[in-house]
Each structure stands twice: as structure tokens, then as C-alpha cells.
Amino acid sequence: MKAADLPFRYNAVDILERNLPARADKVALMSEARTLTFGQMAAEVDRAGHALAGLGVRRGDSVALLALDTAEWVATYFAVVKLGGVVASFNTLLTPAEYEYMLNDCGARVLVVDPSLLPTVEAIRARLEWLEHIVVIGGSGHAHHDFARLVAGAPAGPLPACNTHRDDFCCLNYSSGTTGEPKGILHAHKDLPLAAELVGARTLGLRADDRTFSVAKLFFTFGHGGNLTFPWWVGATVVLHPGSPRQARSVLGVIDRFKPTVFYTAPTGFASMLAESGLASEWDLSSLRLCVSAGEALPAPIWHRWKQATGLEILDGIGSTENYHMFIANRPGDAVPGSSGRPIEGYDARIVDEAGREVGPGQVGNLLVRGETSALLYLHQYDRSKRTFQGEWLDTGDKYSVDANGVYWHAGPRSRSRAVSSLTPTWPSARWSATPTATAWSSRRRSSSSGPGPAASASPSASSSTAPPPWRSTSARAGSSS
């Protein structure tokens, strides 16, 4: 599948709505709080879209999403996409200074936020240049829009999908290295179905009868692809869990209760579950047929221990937010422990020396990748963009080698200041010192007890705010009430 196979006019809400003719009554989403069919989910997206349109959201506008993994997160995401806007989904574990930078950088007019994170936003509200409305998902005692009431008061009829071009931007993720400000990475409508088909359907082999669960949250592209766009592209069901990813017993409890067939987490997640003494006896993992890992190199001993404990292979791969998801991966039934696998259909990889010359098998060099889901730039960061996006090739910032069988082996990051953004963070509580990770996440500004998060940026001042993003057709109307 190539971008040219999609119509010029394409809106990625199709990933949800393609299921309506044949699967409207099938369960699309499960969580402790709610279970929704595809039909119910589509209706909720339409109502959320009408509500956001009532706040003035229109094509090209940026809407920020700072919330836990819930049905409301998903409804907001696809509502903005359907309206032709750009969803900026934020990591829920960052600092006020990072939220201030990102909200001003993306020019968000509306912020949809979980009540637990509202105090952080209110502390910086006076310095948010473009924000007009705050919508809170639940909670009480605040003066902002309530999500449930806003949606309930919106029209119930169908929401026409904006006639977007397949190359129009639809989503924005921020990721941070150990130096500098968070990097805004834009993806187009076409990138979501392309990755869903090439990675989800053709490489991982997802099916309509699958039920997926990801420890990586929806604001990470690893979680967003694996546990939303990929399964819905093939008509499968997703399981959402708003709880902490660092609690292995909680994660195992979700598997035991909801019986997913496909499970995604980082290597440290597999390691933490293996550390539980009752892994094989206390929890029922028999529903699983596929386990997928990314975000850091998977040590071969963890692969073998998981296989011995569960009978399941782990399919490890490498991906990046810049490419939306994985571009090299192991395949079901053909996994090579300790390796990243082979390039995924639709992606080309090269290993070059410092002069840009291709190196031979077994030699370590710099990994470059080419594919149609690659982003084009870092928002408002020209110099960084030039170093990473080199024509049709993306410089991953990683050292790799490829063997005579075409299998790629991770040899560590070349420079953490240049490494591209990993799909998932490395949780500070369980790093693998023997296998350097491809991610640039660290706990530099946060203690390990306060949870994972990207390395901090310099605290931006009010004067550092940029103009609204380049995809905006008109200026923001700052100063409206929230």
C-alpha cells in the first residue's frame, strides 16, 4: 500500500467509520468505565465534533489533548480529525514549563484536560497566548467547560467530515531529547492508514477478531498505533487502561480481566512482569497470541525468559514518532531474539558511515530510513529539522549493523542530542545498562518516583511564544473566556 492508493481527499476518521457498514454493533472499545460499539463511538465522535465546532474549532485549528486513556480521549481525537483540525496529544507526566512551551508552540485554541491535570494548567494559564477554551473531562469546582455537559448539549446528528487532503496535517506529538525544547512532530491524514496497513495488518497480522491492549499510552505513537488506529483499521477491539504503566500487577490484572489477544509494552514492561512470582499461576494470560515490544532494544535474555514463562514470542522492532510507528520489526514465527528484525514493507533502511557511504554487512554505522509515513519537519525548529530530515531519508540517530540475512542489530544511539524520538519512554526505574536504548527519555527533571517523562526543556518565557502554527489559515482570537 502506498499513499497514492488513498484518494486525494481523505480524512483519517475513516479508520473508525470504515467499520460502520458491517460492524456498527461490534464492540470497538472496552475499559473499566465504559464499553462502546463502533456505532456508539462514531456517534460520540460526532457529538464531540459538534461541541468543539460550537467553540469555534474549524479546519486547521489546533486542539490540545491532555488526558488519560479513556473513551473521551478517543472521541476528542477523532472529532478534531473529522473537523479537519490538528490534535496535539500531550504526555501526562510533564512539567508546567513543558506544557507552557507546547501549548504556545502549537497555538492550541482549545485544551481538553483531565481534572487531575487541571491545576497544572491553571498555574500557567496567564502565559498561554493562544488558548481560548478549557474543557475538563469530569471533576467539579472549576469554572471551565465540562466535557459531558458540553457534548450532551451538542447536536446529535451526523457531523460531516471535513474534505481534507490526504497530505493535510491531522496530529501533532511532542517528544524531547536530553537537550533543547520539546520537538513538535506533525503527521498527515495519510500516515495513519498507511502505518495501520503496513505495520498492523501486513507485519503484525492483526485481525478483526483481535482485542488489543497497550501499556504505552495513547499519547505515545507506539500506543496510539498499536492500540487504536491499527486495530480499528482491521475492525478489532481496543482495551484502554488509564492506570499507571509502572505497576506490573495492575497491567497483569487488565490482561486477566479483559482477555486481549495482542499486547504491547516496552522491554522494561516485560521485565517487570517477569519479576512477579505468580506470573504463570496468579493471572490468566492464555488469551494472548501476540506480544510486541518497542522503545528500546529488547535483550535476548528477556525474550527467552518470556517465551519460557508464557510460550509466546516477543516481536521486537524499532520505530520513531517521526515515522509514526515501527519501520523495522520481527515477524510472527520468524523472530530473531536480540535483533530488531527486518525492514517493514514500504520502508527502506541504509547503514552509512560518517561520510554518508553505505557500509557492508556486519559493520556498524548510522541508520537511515525512508518511508511515506515520515514526518517532514520539527515544528518551528529549522536547524534540528535540517539535521534529521535529509531529503527522503530520515536520520534516526542510532548505530546499527545488518547481517548477511538482512537482520538489523541495534548498536546504541550515536548521539542522544540527535537521536529521533522513540515510540515509548524508557521508564527510569528499570533501565538496561547493557543495552543502550534508542530513546532519549530521562528523569533529569523528575525523580524516578514521580514517574517517567521526557527530559526537560529550558523554561520558556512568555516572550518565547511563537505565532500560531503554519497550517492555520487565520489568526487565533486570544482573550476569549474558557
What this model shows, in words?
The chain is an alpha/beta fold and 482 residues long. The chain has two domains: 7-26 and 34-166, 3-Layer(aba) Sandwich (Rossmann fold), CATH 3.40.50; 191-443, 3-Layer(aba) Sandwich (Rossmann fold), CATH 3.40.50. It is built from 14 helices and 21 strands. The protein has helices at 14-17, 20-23, 38-54, 71-83, 96-106, 118-124, 147-152, 191-201, 221-234, 248-258, 267-274, 279-282, 300-310, 382-388, and strands at residues 27-30, 35-37, 62-66, 86-89, 110-113, 133-136, 145-146, 169-175, 183-188, 211-214, 237-239, 262-265, 290-293, 314-319, 326-329, 342-343, 347-352, 365-371, 389-390, 393-402, 408-413. It has a nine-stranded mixed β-sheet with strand order 2-1-11-10-12-13-14-15-16. Strand 1 (27-30) and strand 2 (35-37) form a beta hairpin. Helix 3 packs across helix 4 (71-83), helix 8 crosses helix 9 and helix 11 packs across helix 13 (300-310). The longest helix has 17 residues, at 38-54.
